[in-house]
Each structure stands twice: as C-alpha cells, then as structure tokens.
Amino acid sequence: MTDGLAPRPPDADRFDPRVRVERWTLGAPRCWDHFAAEARARAGLDPAAWERVLWHGGLWVDRRRPRPGEPLPAGAEVALYAFTAEPETRPFGPERVLALDGDLAALDKPAWLPMHGTRASARIGLEEAAREALGDPGWRAVHRLDRQTSGVVLFARTGTLAARLHRLFRARRVGKTYRAVVEPAPATDRFTVAGRMVRVSHPSHARFALDPTGEAEPHSESRFEVVRRSEGRAWLDCRPITGRTHQLRVHLAHAGHPIAGDALYGHGWRPGGAPRCLLHAHRLALRLGARDLGFEAPLPPEMAAPVGGG
Fold first, then answer.
1. Does 99 reside within a domain?
2. Is the N end or the C end of the chain the one with fewer CB atoms within 10 Å?
3. Would you say 29 and 72 are in contact if contact means Cβ atoms under 8 Å apart?
4. Domain range holding 60?
C-alpha cells in the first residue's frame, strides 16, 4: 500500500498506483452474485473494475482468495484491494537474464517490480515474471530487493539449491555491492556506519532507525566509498556487511547522506527530482562448491553518472 497523499514521482503512479482498501464483515450468508453486487457497491466499482480486482486477486475472504462463484458464510471477514489506476507492467524478457547455470539463475530486477505478488495483485511480481521468462514454474528467489531497488537477484530451480544459497546469505558469505546516488555528498571518500537497528513507528510502512550506542542485536554495519561526485550529489559503492531490512537506506540517512528519491528516509520527491529511490544491486559474488561466481547488473539510465564535471 501507499501512504497518505504526499507528492509522488510519476513512475510511482505508473507502476505502483495507490490502492483503496474496503473491509467489512458479512452479516448473513451470501451467494456469489449477491456478494459481488454488494462488494462492487461498497467499493464504487463498475463491472470492468470489479473484473480487474478478481483478475489481480485483490479480493480476500477470511484471509484467502475465494474462488469466484463460491457461496460465502455469515461472519466472513472481507478485504478488497483495488488499484486506483491499472498498474503498468515492466517489460521482462530474456535480456533480463544475466546468467543461467543449471539450477541457478541471476536476473536483473527492474525498479518498481515487487519480488512477489501483493495483497492487491498476485500477478505482478519478479517471481511470476522470472518463471515465465525461464519457462519453468519451479524457479524461486533466494533473497529479496525492495520494490524500487533494481539489480541482481539470484534464483534457484530446486529446493536443495535454494536452501544452500540461503545458508550462504545467512552466514554472510555472499559479497554484495550496491550503487547508490546520495545527496548531499559526503565530505570523505570512505566511511563506515554501524550500530543497532531498531524499528520505529510509522503509519503505513516498516521503518527503522539506527541506535549507534546499542550493543545488542540486531547489529548492522555497512561500508561506503565514493566513486563519483557531481553538483552536490555522489555515486557510492555500498557494501553491507550485515543484511538488515532497509540497512543501506537507514545507514546513509543516519550519516546525513540519504539516497536520492528515498521518500521514507530521505527528503521525499519534488518535481524534477529522482524518479525513484536510486539504489541498485550492482554485483554479487559467492563461492558455490569449488566455483567462484560473480554476477553484475548494468546501471539503469537514471543512475548513470553525468559525463564530465566534478
């Protein structure tokens, strides 16, 4: 879901449109046709919009997606998630496959594509796109990136390999390098941020903050290096030593150099600003058995550094 009515970049309205939610409890049993009429009226949906809700899987009854046509019992808890506009799809074809090695695949995730389906749509997600592109329903992601983050994601075709890769990630034996654009630029070319990450209150999102004096878990650490500067911005290589949720975003915001376009931890969006949170999973490196493997996703156009200048 999205929060409030804060200004949003145009790409957010295209690929991650706001979602309206209606919740109610059925006071009496309903046949499907009567239920559908009631649901449409509550949500103010015309027949075409109702069909899109069903197509996406945005209707939930007692925490599951019902089969159209089934009767619904009294007391059922209904939740209806309806996009305010139909989301545009991100093209995902063979060009997004960085490497395919037996049961292992490295894919280049486009920004705005969630890793998995959401409450509003079971059809829009990287796993769904990957299975179609690779021609096998067995492929599964073994780690995740935020919706707006682009770059390298590893997939496994078997549960055995997925479990093996999960262990490598948990043991911090996967080298990860992200590229971020931050503003303002840091004064020093190299710096480290570390400390205990804690969850803080937010009306609609998971949000975290850094307590650098805390010694208890969950500890976090990231290392940063400037690779380019221009007009008050900097392009950083970011190496997370640990793997906490939102870690790089929290660390850079805490250091006073939030990622450009990060509405949750940075300055929010303004006209002419970054089209998204400019964070990209640039490289992954790991040792699998006797082989050293490395994968790199090219920088998307919105993250390319300007030619010339400072």
1. yes
2. C
3. yes
4. 19-83
